UniProtKB/TrEMBL annotation:
Protein name per the record: non-specific serine/threonine protein kinase
Organism of derivation: Nocardioides eburneiflavus
Membrane spanning residue stretches: 424-445
Domain PASTA, first and last residues per copy: 449-512, 513-580, 581-647, 648-712
Biased composition (Low complexity): 372-397, 404-414
GO biological process: negative regulation of fatty acid biosynthetic process
Domain Protein kinase: 10-276
Region (Disordered): 290-416
Amino acid sequence: MVGRLLDGRYRIGARVARGGMASVYEATDTRLDRLVAVKVMHPGLGDDQEFAHRFVREARAAARLNHPHVVGVYDQGDDASDGTDTVFLVMEYVPGHTLRDVVRKEAPMPPGRALALLEPVVSALAAAHRAGLVHRDVKPENVLIADEAHGGRVKVADFGLAKAVSADTQHTATGGVLIGTVSYLAPELVVDGRSDARADVYAAGVVLYELLTGKKPHEGESPIQVAYRHVHHDVPMPSLLQPGIPDYVDALVARSTSRDRGQRPADATVLLHHLHRVEQALRDGLRSDPDLAADLLPRRTPSDATSSGDADDDTGERTTPEPFDASALALLTEVDPRDSGLVDDGSPDRTTALERHPVQTDAPAGGPATEPMRATPAVAAAAPTTTMTSTPATPVRQGPPGRAPTRAVPVTTTARRRSVKGPVALLLSVLLLGGVAAGAWWFGWERWTTTPGVLNLDQVAATDELEDAGLEAEVGEPAYSENVAAGLVIATDPEPGGRVLDGGTVTLVLSLGPERYDVPDLAGQTEDQAQDALAATNLAFGESSGRWSETVPEGQVIRSSPKVGTTLKPGATVDLVLSRGRKPIEVKDFTGQSFEDARAALEKRRLQVSVTDEQFSDTVAEGDVISQDPTSGTLFRGDTVSFVVSLGPELVEVPRVRAMGVEAATELLEGLGFQVETEQSDTYLGLGFVSSSDPEQGEQVPKGSTITLFLV
């Protein structure tokens, strides 16, 4: 691939990673002259339509996400320039390292550092879940961290296993093949292959455990053992390995990794809210917060405590004695990478494919085949065998290959006498069968009635309808509905047409109308506080932008978009405008320039102008600036710039010197600061008296000017 030009545009460079379905190369987009990452499907996999469709689905799914913590997808194509189909995906290039490198170097790490690394990951997953996408392969290898020179931003990559959540795409991608990384698989993925947003929440919780402790919660000699422990063992508390971890951090790990997915946060948006609460407790320096820990810990039902027989083993994990769900993990084996296209990339957790194989048991001789039974090899081997014995040396009949031999049991018969007990027994049997039939008719049909349809009726009308049918009505928890007006019935339990005992109770679910939330007043809050407030009202944080503000402190919310009070659907995004503080104003030096021009320029920029002094100047023209304070730097609106303004040169009136002796006139003029020169007038007689001067008597001239005396 190196040096090849894909699609006439992408020049392939060095390979930077290799995964189960594809390799990633550094490449140059020759059209836009930028560095990109190109993921190329392994040769041969493009011929497998199922794998190819999944690869294309990765492009479409990831391209729907526009989030600062998700690796951007630019292009997708199929190049056949060398005679073979090369399916490829063009993505944002993130120079740096992965979260796995951070785990190797820093784990175990303090809770604050672990949560700071996990927060952008959960934020990215929250955006995916809001878009209806499930990542399905969250692990440290899929979290990229840019170099400091490129901002150090954390980004989630490889949505190759993501799937749009819909009714027909809940199962595994390959019909019985479980795709994912075993160390981070949620129990429900192992048991029945079904996944939703809570599977990503579970994986994120496992990543948090690994950041806090430096170890994976479940380890084994094979993927099967690891998967088994995910199903039957709780993730232990991180504080068992790192005693300094607060109880509410333990609770967050327990909540996100609960084996009962109903106890986990519904999606990453809810998990992000819990994570912010824990971060705030850490910022407050709380070593323990029993209330927060109790709120975060998963709730245990009474059946968990009474029937499961939970106990702690020597590892600190809670285990349950429930039998392993054979239908979920029957004959679990790791697929040969050469057969599946899943090639080990050398990382500790490569994506693994696990297959389920049904096991059928033999049918009794002469009888119908039993329903297929699923069991693990261990379960099958440990299953007790029941045999019937008759006489020694019972012949053994060999069945088909792979089936256990069965023994033929000889049957002997003896003659019997007629007895009157036979008709009596027959009569009793008939009566018994009649009683059973009558009981079955009564208990199975007659005492039941059909739930009438009361949908779209109000509570009063629905209650009357049910009472007319001999049933009682009670109101259950209301629910939101986009289609049914508030106060009308949107569902019943049992549902319309369902069976209910005569005189039984039908629960009505009333509509609350469309689910809507008002944008809260976020002004004056920090960005984190605003995000928590949005999550609490089931709204989503979109993006933030900065604006200068003279009144709102830096880092606080100025306004939101949509504005406060706008009614939105749940999950709608709200953008924030954050204050960047007061806008700085650069000051220009106006020395030697017109003061009036300086005043106009500064007042236009909302600065105050003052004149502290006016001085005579032989070098600065009248009305120009002699000096200013400050002459440069940064000011803010309303600050003052002070000026000293020139009055021009100082003027002195020329005195009367006519008829004065030349010495006396010279002394007088020099005393006033003038320079004196003498010349002979046209009527010069040598008398030494002044006949006139230039400038003449009474004129205002600058101090230091030269006065010429004309003598007679």
